[in-house]
Write a structure and sequence with these properties.
5-stranded mixed β-sheet, alpha+beta, Immunoglobulin-like, 20% helix, 455 residues
C-alpha cells in the first residue's frame, strides 16, 4: 500500500452530476416514448381506413352474385384479422408508454430528492501496490452519521391452551440518512456508544465532626527578627471542614449486539426499516391481576422467567392475545434469568366491588397516650368465565420512617402469597374464582401513633 488519502467530495458537484445523468436518461425515455406514440398513431390511421371500407360493389351481373358474396366473406375475415392484430399491438404499446411515464416520474423524484446530498462528504482514496499479479481483497471501515435504530416488539399470548405460552419477537427499526442506499447489507445493531467514554468520578463530602484542618496565621515579626507579639501569644487556630474525595459508583449502560440473519436493503431517507433481531417462545403463567385501590378493573398478565442468550431492550410492544390485537404496551430491560411481566389488556368478564369497612377510627384512648387506627377494606370478586379462573389481588400497606409510628398488618383473607423483600408492604393473594361465584378478599392494617400526632 503506497498511500491513503482523504478528500472532500463537494455536495454541489455530486448533485449536479446526478441531475445531469437523470436528465439524460429522461431525454432517452422521451425519445423512446415518441417512437411508440408514432406507431400507435399510424395504426389508428390504418384502423380508420379499414373501418371505412365497405367491401361491396354496387354493379355487376346477376351471374356474378355468388362469386361476389364469396369474395366479400373472405375479405371480411381478412379485414377482421387485421383489425384485431392492430388493436393488440396498440394495447402493447400503450402499456409501454405507461411504463415509460412511470420511469420518468421516478427519475424526476430522484432529481427533487437530490437536494439531500447537497452537503459535502468525505472520500478515501487508496493507492495499492501488490507483490504479484492477482486479485486482492481489502477491508475499509468508516463511521457515518445520521444513522439510528430503536427496539420494538410483537408479543403474542396463547392463553387458551392447556399450557399457555408467549412468543416474543424483537424487531429493530433502522433508519439511515447517509444519502446512499444500503443494498444487501449484513447488518449488526448495537447499544454501544463509541463516543461515550465512561470514567469514574469523585464526589466531595464534608465531614464536619470528624476531620478538621488547622489553619495557622503568620505572627508579626520585628525588623531584628524577634517577634513583636506578646510572649504568651500562640498560633491562632481555626477549624475548617475538610473535603474528602470518595469513589462513587458510575452506573453504565449494558451494551449488547444483535446480528441480522439475512442481508437487508435499507434505503436512505426518514423511514424506518424493520428487521428481525430475536425470536423467543416460552411457557408462561397467565393470571388476572387486580389492584382494587387503584382501579376496579382486572388486567390479564402473563409472567415468565426470560431465558435467552441476549437481553430484552426497552421498547414499545404490539400485543396480541389469542390471535387478536389488543393494543400497545412497553417492555423494560430484562436480562436472561429475570422475570418478564406483560399486560394484555383488561378482562371484562370479572366484576369488582371494593368497600371501606373501617377508615381509621381512633381506638385505645387510655393506652398511655397512644392511639390505634384501624383501616379495613373488603373486595368482592365475581367471575363470568365458563371455568375456574386464577386471579391475583394486590394491596399495599403504607410505609413510614417515623420511629413513633408503627404500622402492622391486621386481618387478612386466606391465600396470601409470600412477601417480596424488594417491595415492602405489598400484599398479594392468589384466588381461584369459580364460574359464576363470588369471593371476598379482606385487607386490613393497623396504625399506632402517639396521641395528637398527625398520621
Amino acid at each position: 500500500m503506497n498511500s491513503v488519502q482523504v478528500r472532500t467530495v463537494l455536495g454541489a458537484e455530486v448533485v449536479e452530476k446526478r441531475t445531469r445523468e437523470f436528465r439524460r436518461r429522461i431525454r432517452v425515455l422521451e425519445d423512446r416514448k415518441s417512437v411508440v406514440q408514432d406507431r400507435i398513431t399510424a395504426r389508428n390511421y390504418e384502423l380508420d381506413l379499414l373501418r371505412g371500407n365497405r367491401g361491396a360493389n354496387g354493379g355487376g351481373k346477376a351471374g356474378d352474385k355468388t362469386r361476389e358474396w364469396k369474395d366479400l366473406a373472405q375479405g371480411a375475415e381478412e379485414l377482421g384479422r387485421r383489425i384485431h392484430e392492430l388493436l393488440a399491438l396498440n394495447r402493447a404499446d400503450s402499456v409501454a408508454v405507461r411504463e415509460i411515464d412511470e420511469e420518468m416520474a421516478g427519475l424526476n423524484r430522484e432529481i427533487v430528492l437530490s437536494g439531500s446530498l447537497q452537503r459535502d462528504t468525505t472520500a478515501l482514496d487508496i493507492d495499492l501496490t501488490t507483490i504479484a499479479r492477482g486479485d486482492v481483497s481489502i477491508t475499509v471501515s468508516y463511521v457515518v452519521r445520521d444513522v439510528s435504530w430503536r427496539a420494538s416488539y410483537e408479543v403474542a399470548l396463547d392463553s387458551l391452551s392447556t399450557k399457555p405460552g408467549m412468543n416474543i419477537s424483537l424487531i429493530g427499526e433502522v433508519m439511515q440518512r447517509t444519502g446512499e442506499d444500503w443494498k444487501d447489507t449484513l447488518l449488526v445493531v448495537s447499544t454501544e456508544r463509541p463516543a461515550y467514554l465512561a470514567t469514574p468520578r469523585t464526589e466531595q463530602v464534608q465531614y464536619n465532626n470528624v476531620y478538621r484542618k488547622k489553619r495557622a496565621y503568620s505572627m508579626p515579626v520585628a525588623s531584628d527578627g524577634r517577634s513583636s507579639a506578646a510572649p504568651t501569644s500562640a498560633l491562632e487556630l481555626d477549624e475548617e471542614p475538610i473535603h474528602l474525595e470518595t469513589p462513587v459508583q458510575v452506573n453504565g449502560e449494558y451494551a449488547t449486539r444483535f446480528k441480522v440473519a439475512q442481508p437487508v436493503t435499507i434505503k436512505t431517507g426518514s423511514e424506518y426499516r424493520r428487521v428481525s433481531l430475536l425470536e423467543a417462545s416460552t411457557p408462561c403463567k397467565v393470571a388476572v391481576v387486580i389492584v382494587p385501590s387503584g382501579s376496579p378493573t382486572a388486567v390479564l398478565e402473563a409472567s415468565t422467567v426470560f431465558k435467552a442468550d441476549q437481553p430484552l431492550l426497552p421498547g414499545t410492544a404490539q400485543l396480541f392475545r389469542d390471535g387478536e390485537y389488543v393494543g400497545t404496551g412497553n417492555i423494560g430491560a430484562v436480562m436472561s434469568g429475570e422475570e418478564l411481566r406483560v399486560n394484555f389488556g383488561t378482562d371484562p368478564s370479572l366484576r369488582i366491588a371494593r368497600k371501606a369497612v373501617n377508615c381509621g377510627r381512633e381506638e385505645g384512648w387510655f393506652n398511655f397516650g397512644r392511639v390505634t387506627r384501624r383501616y379495613r377494606w373488603e373486595t368482592t370478586l365475581k367471575s363470568g368465565h365458563a371455568s375456574a379462573w386464577p386471579v391475583e389481588v394486590r394491596e399495599q400497606i403504607p410505609q413510614t420512617e417515623d420511629p413513633d409510628i408503627n404500622i402492622v398488618p391486621g386481618e387478612m383473607s386466606d391465600g396470601l402469597l409470600a412477601d417480596d423483600p424488594e417491595k415492602p408492604g405489598l400484599k398479594r393473594w392468589s384466588v381461584s374464582l369459580e364460574a359464576g361465584k363470588a369471593k371476598k378478599v379482606v385487607f386490613e392494617y393497623i396504625v399506632k401513633a402517639p396521641k395528637g400526632k398527625s398520621v
